[in-house]
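The instructor's notes for this session suggest beginning with a concrete chain rather than abstract definitions. Hand out the sequence below and ask the class to guess, before any prediction is shown, which regions might be ordered.
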Amino acid sequence: MDEIRISGLEVYAYHGVFPEENKKGQHFYINAVLYTDTRKAGKTDELSDSTHYGLVCEEMARAMKEQCFHLLERAAEYVAERVLLTFPLIREIELEICKPEAPIALPFSNVSVKIRRGWHTVYLGLGSNLGDSGQYLKTALEKLSASKQIRGVKSSEWIRTKPYGVEEQPDFLNGAAVMETLFTPWELLDFLHIVEAEAGRVRKVRWGARTLDLDILFYDDRVIDSENLTIPHMDMVNREFVLVPLAGLNPYLRHPITGRTVQEMLKDLRERV
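After discussion, reveal the predicted structure:
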């Protein structure tokens, strides 16, 4: 990924834990690395094919001035999000906010907070077998698209499948979706649980009937194995109702652990059953 660098952007703002900082203000300095693809602009020499770094500077300064935060960490999150939401060609931003006038009663030259934030590619599995399944799935996609933390939602075709695990229940309507998000994996999981709950999802029986089921299949090439979240989805290799719609979106998507493509996993599964 190419880089556009901004160093020492000076902004007078009003962030700090102490009341006098919020009232009097002080100088802050911003360093930023914008991760983007500059190839097209490098070929065409057209500003419309690049990110206008002057406008980025103005946006960062505006974000710093329009609100007052106690913590430098919060200011950094706010500024980074504003840049990522405002300039679509920027995939990631490394942002450092420096506070050389911080109220520290010792000699020092600078205090800063540095973060790196960006868009992440996520694949989801979707399913429903209670009520109007088609409408539940449609509404779920609409709620995903409506979140400012999510963009570019694209879904597979829906397929009708037999239930998995607990067989004494209605057939499922299943599919997959791909999107980009600013959510962390755990933030995304919480958001998906909210969408499920709004659809009347009740968690009583494992693999039981449900109005809406949303599973994180892949999050970039991250491998996570925690108490409440496993990525990639650990049982997808045994689920044709996951692999078929996923293959419709990206048959060459590779599992970050096994290295096998979705197409290969689907072929292996069909040979085993």
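Then share the key points. The first helix runs from residue 19 to 24. The CA atoms of residues 66 and 102 lie 20 Å apart.
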